Amino acid sequence: MLILPAQESLSAHPAFQAGITPGPKGVQTMSRMVRVGLVQHDCTEEYRRNLAESEQGIRQAAAAGANLVLLPELHTSTYFCQTEDASRFDQAEAVPGPTTQHLAAIASELGVVIVASVFERRAAGLYHNTAVVLERDGSVAGCYRKMHIPDDPGYYEKFYFAPGDQGFVPVATSVGVLGVLVCWDQWYPEAARLMALAGAEILLYPTAIGWDPGDPAAERERQLDSWITIQRAHSIANGLPLAACNRHGHEPDLQGHTDGIEFWGSSFLTGPQGEMLAQAPAGSPAVIVADVDLGRTEAVRRIWPFLRDRRIDAYQGLTRRYAK
To answer: Are residues 116 and 54 in contact, defined by beta-carbon separation less than 8 angstroms?
Structure first.
């Protein structure tokens, strides 16, 4: 399923044709258009099948004109962190390694930038949940190692992953400066802010998140709404477009302790005022593609100058675990 945004693409706007971004209160800035594709698919225990699903989605997005493609978190395997199983470390790979080399060839062939998620083996006994940015010539432009590591029922990531040690550093690419974060990072405004302060032009979140199948409908709705709302808030607070790419489908707990996870899909793209540009359905595979104008950040921040008005002299308490 290929989903294009329901609204008219910004590239068709007369002002864009003139190279100008229409902004709030008549502010006009130069357009910098990127067509972003998100590949939402389910995942199984079959590595080659999962990688083929990712590749098919990349090709579909590129055929629709995407020059930046985002894949879900840990997209070449099931979400194995539902349980603690030391044999799963055998799935980890180096960067560069088999997955990045395969996707690098596709990036070079299609001339697209790809953000992929891998279970990285950095050294014996040292593993990370890592997002790798592949440039359109197939080279590794950079990577981000997940900083916030959950340890909750069904999400035992601390067993597998060491926290990232590179900080919140964007990756410069031919399509723009990418503020890449991973899943659990998406709940932390500090992470998005630090990426913005370091010059990120778009926030990208490969994700694996879902419901407990036993959750009632009202609780499911609250969780999904919270997930979308917090990320739209990051977009608004920083004046940046944002993309979140999730997997979908039910994955069982192989040890039988829980009913597994129903991943809720719903991958989406927002503009720098949090406006929804495109969204995938909850329960099926989809490739969504939308135009994102990086030039609108300048227009939005001139009218909503949140960075200017920050009280950096009064935020020392943010480095404390709790203020009381």
So the answer is: yes
